[in-house]
Amino acid sequence: MEVESLPCKALSYPALVGELSKGQEVLLNSTAVDRKLGTGGYLFVVAPAVLPEPRTGPGHMMKARYTPLQTMVLGVDEQESPHHEVFQQHDSIDGMPVVVADLHSALPAIVACARHVNPSIRIAYIHTDTAALPIAFSKASARLTELDHITTITSGQSYGGDYEAVNVHTALITAKHVIGADIAVVIQGPGNVGTGTPWGYSGTAVGESINAINALGGTAIATLRVSQADRRERHLGISHHSITSYTSVALTPAIIPTVSENIGTDVQELIKAALPKLTSCEHLTLREVTGVDAGLRKSAVPLRTMGRDLEADYAAFAYAGAGGVLAAQLLHEPAK
Questions:
Q1: What's the pTM?
Q2: CA 109 to chain centre
């Protein structure tokens, strides 16, 4: 097949393919570009003409397992890790507040609002494996790590974090007992998958994360996916993703933060109409929070979701940021 030659950009992960030099021939994966996808619509370097030397460092945990690009990492919880004994000693995260969210774009808002309430708060970000596997794909987490606003843990098949964990459970224990975090945030990477069907979306994982948080004695904070600008009816107001995940997938307690400051009346009406679906579940508790706007305005990285900025879809970021505010506030409340 004859392919038209056009200038284009490609992403390369040096940890997988090694360092590349100008003019070097490489094998590219063009699947996403061929289909003209939005998120993830990049060329990816699969390999150089000469493969790099195999990794010989410690660890034996494979991620992206049994694919041509599987990568070996040192798991924080495996036998060779200096932290292995931590996981023999701890099976609880001692009430630590943990914020969950559907979309990766919620991360900067949650972090900004938590830090606005408590500038010295220590935050662990748990990057799950239901979207982008390499955390390096996230510019937001890279910048927040560079600023020392978060410490990253990649769980499951995802990889490239400051710590590598087998699953969300050991990632939560890592956050509390290895990193010493005050709060944790659990969100998939960029590239949310959705099919427009009731159950066909990667965000169902937030419900599973809530169950994991409670299994380990944490305090689950379930942020709502909200939009005032999404053209798709199923995501306008409270997304069906949040309703299904929190009412049918999550089977254990969670606090849902809500916010009304600076939210337009029309959006508030849409939200109020959907709230009974959540309040009818005994394991869910709603809690109104304030002070979100000031935190959002201080975000260290740009706030963008589905191509929309803070002004275009304020409600989306406000409801995400409310989780950060609540998590920081809970640290100062007496344990129940």
A1: 0.89
A2: 12
